[in-house]
Amino acid sequence: MPVSPDDTIASLLHPARREPARLRRLSVLAACAVPRPLPVNTLAEALGAPLQEGARLACEAGLCTLLPDHRLAPTRAATLDMAVNLLEVPEVRETCARLAPLLEAPDEALLLMLAADPLGQGRARFQRATGRAAAMVDGIAWALEPGPSRSAMPPPWDFTSWGEQARWASALLATAAHVLVRGGHVASGHALVAWALGAEGLAGRGSAAHGFLAPTQLQFLLDAGQREAGIAFAREAHQGLAGPENTFSRLMMTVLEGRVAMDAGDDSLARRLFTTVEGQARAAGLDDLVGLAKVAFATLARRAEQNTAAIQLGLAALSLLCGEVPFEAVALLGLGLAYSREGRHLEAQSALTRALPGLDIPFQQLSAYPQAIAADCFLGDTAEAERKLAALVARAPDSPQARLAVGLSRAHLHCARGEWEAALTTLDGLSGGEETAQPHLYAIPTGWLRVEALLALGRASEASSVLDALAQRLYLRNSATQPARLHLLDARVAFANGDVARARRALRRASARPELLSAQDFALRARVLTLQLAEAGGTEAQRLGARQAALAEWRRLVDALPPEAQPRFRRAYDRPRLLTLLGESPMDEGLAPPYLRGSSAPFRAAVAQLRKVASSDASVLLFGETGVGKELAARAIHDMSRRASGPFVAVNCAAINDELLLSDLFGHERGAFTGALARQRGRFEQAHGGTLFLDEVADISPRGQAALLRALQERAFQRVGGTETVQVDVRVVAASNRNLAKAVRAGDFRQDLFFRLNGIQVELPPLRERDEDVLLLATHFLEQAAQERGGAPKSFTPEATRLMRAHPWPGNVRELHNLARAADVLSDAPAIGAAVLAPLLHRAMECAEPRAAPAAMTDIPMLFRQHGGSLRDFLAEVQRQCIAQSLVENGGNVVATASALRISRSRLTQVVLGNAELRRMSGRELEAPPARSTRAPRARRA
């Protein structure tokens, strides 16, 4: 867990302050949870000796009184609903379970057990209820049935039979409902309250005896998004809570009404309601509710961008709410958000992380976890964000709101890692139209992340459309805290679309109140955009001043972090691109990008070579076996280069047939071929200003090789079906798992294209040469699997580790990734053993192609002399015989033959169609051979 550098929070949450407060509240709960006062010694025997000290503190605070016979009794200010609200649910449940055996009346003990364990012993014991509890059996059984099978509601609870204990009994029913809801059984909790209130109570016309049931019902309505029903219920319910014994419940109702007013944007009404709560709570000696009112005032201050005041109010609330974990967690949550807007990011992360364990209401958890994960991601602390995401997945119910919360959190993580396409895919999965209780909590951050991802990918026009919808949502909700940041985002989108005039206007509006840009890195982005606008049309002095201002803001952000946190902060989101724009190195020396993992000497040497290559703009040719991570190496070259601010575009040449390759690389004009309904930008255009990665470049056909060579030589091309010459600035990184030099000698790859691509060669080591990295990578893959399934990461036993170290890994890192994921699924134990791993490794070796032993030497020169023709004709004959033999072995199937010969299907098809015998063997004798080139002969050099 992150450690807060803020001594104030640490001191307020110190155990020396919190433990006495907890004991005091535990004593209040013990006094209120029993219908008649019990001796302090009896309570201490059940709950532990420290209760004696808690009872003394409760008496000093005026919440309890010690009767002459040493029995502990609550005062009028102390009520069961207050005690339940101020302690964590597990502690409330344990206390009720320990107190139940102390009660002489069986029906009273049954109610305490129902509050302690409503779905376990409480329900089982209620089936044998006697006395007053017997009339409650049908209603409680109905409420605790699974939702879909629930029948018609039986007659409501008749509280009159409980006499003076009716309010005590209703508070225990409300406690049981809270236990159910916070345990994930929302429908049962709501049903229990509905049955206890009855039709009249659900309409708000309840009795004073209903007590705690009224604010419980209002909270359930609001959490379900039924705002209008909640307002109508509260209006009626207040009349039944007029007595002094219901002061706490009445003020809790008012707090919830203030929440409704804030959600509706009526801050003035909310302020009046919270002022009422603070005044009446202070008069009644309820310091806990005074603290809760201060939390509400802090929220109002944060909404008005009065962040300093919000922090002061939040700290004051913490001092009053000492040890009241549920309310304390709400205060910490608001304090963390205020710290974030004030630009105090470490304090924000610490406060939000501390808040999460105390939030036991599902609605609060689902809104707080994405905010805490966003704070981690902003700092680049993806390990902490992954831990929180795993906790969220483990406790999230199966509901639309839970799916949105988990998806939004995953999108934050993808963005922090620079995985923009994955972020968009995740966000697209959240737009299924499911109804949620509070849609604005997710619509705004998902829209914001979508714009950021589209900008990072260079899809500016799409970003503009998403921004329009986002701005409409913000203004319709009267979100006073958003306009400055919204104007800044508008300016960035306008600049990306080439609308410099609009970008300048929006940036001026965003900068009108600089204090509103202190959150996250908005001020830095405003400075960077100012620099970009100056470079687009400013004087040299303006450019120099803008650069200095942006660098100063960057250093202010980084210097506020401890040294160990700075590298991950530099790597997060698109900050490498921002640093490149500022003329700074996007990576620290010796630091690998986060997606390259390893510590072995071959890995470190390869990373060092990639870093050297990145410093130039020369073409790069990556070699290595399949699965070693050539695309990740190409991305690392891009991210560590001066082109990091531009796009990275990857093309798998083996996956595109010859007919579509030219269109994919260079684009096409409308009508260029059947189905070309609009102009399409090719990969070269998409990579303008960045890096183009050509994977499996050896599989490009001769026609494609010629077109690629021209584009590389001239840095220009024409779209398919077009006449306009398109100029591009692109760095090309190519890769192949075949030896291109041998392909050149065999005539399968153009020599001039090879020399054009082969600016710098980088050989990536296979995994069998990186023995130290095997366990490190496997553990990382298990952590990824655990995050996806929402559980704790598994590990490997020593025997399994030895098996992995002995394995040759013919499929390299890709094979290891697949094996770790499969082992995670197949292993029932937390430690994956050799029994699970051995069959997987054995199957992998069966599928791997054996490394052939050296064949007997053949006298190739003798065969050439016997042939009698030219070397070119000899090689063509060898090629024809190899293809013919393979066609026979594969039944004339061209696809299988190409796979066996390890050449592309398009290349094999060209050879087959050029030879009558091969056409017959492949069943293509009716197809015409390819037309020969009519290119004029070159003039000989004098």
TrEMBL record:
<dbReference type="InterPro" id="IPR003593">
    <property type="entry name" value="AAA+_ATPase"/>
</dbReference>
<dbReference type="InterPro" id="IPR009057">
    <property type="entry name" value="Homeodomain-like_sf"/>
</dbReference>
<dbReference type="GO" id="GO:0005524">
    <property type="term" value="F:ATP binding"/>
</dbReference>
<keyword id="KW-0067">ATP-binding</keyword>
<dbReference type="InterPro" id="IPR027417">
    <property type="entry name" value="P-loop_NTPase"/>
</dbReference>
<dbReference type="Pfam" id="PF25601">
    <property type="entry name" value="AAA_lid_14"/>
</dbReference>
<dbReference type="InterPro" id="IPR058031">
    <property type="entry name" value="AAA_lid_NorR"/>
</dbReference>
<protein>
    <submittedName>
        <fullName>Two component, sigma54 specific, transcriptional regulator, Fis family protein</fullName>
    </submittedName>
</protein>
<feature type="domain" description="Sigma-54 factor interaction">
    <location>
        <begin position="596"/>
        <end position="825"/>
    </location>
</feature>
<keyword id="KW-0238">DNA-binding</keyword>
<dbReference type="GO" id="GO:0003677">
    <property type="term" value="F:DNA binding"/>
</dbReference>
<keyword id="KW-0805">Transcription regulation</keyword>
<keyword id="KW-0804">Transcription</keyword>
<keyword id="KW-0547">Nucleotide-binding</keyword>
<dbReference type="InterPro" id="IPR025944">
    <property type="entry name" value="Sigma_54_int_dom_CS"/>
</dbReference>
<dbReference type="GO" id="GO:0006355">
    <property type="term" value="P:regulation of DNA-templated transcription"/>
</dbReference>
<dbReference type="InterPro" id="IPR011990">
    <property type="entry name" value="TPR-like_helical_dom_sf"/>
</dbReference>
<dbReference type="InterPro" id="IPR002078">
    <property type="entry name" value="Sigma_54_int"/>
</dbReference>
<feature type="region of interest" description="Disordered">
    <location>
        <begin position="923"/>
        <end position="942"/>
    </location>
</feature>
<dbReference type="InterPro" id="IPR025943">
    <property type="entry name" value="Sigma_54_int_dom_ATP-bd_2"/>
</dbReference>
<dbReference type="Pfam" id="PF00158">
    <property type="entry name" value="Sigma54_activat"/>
</dbReference>
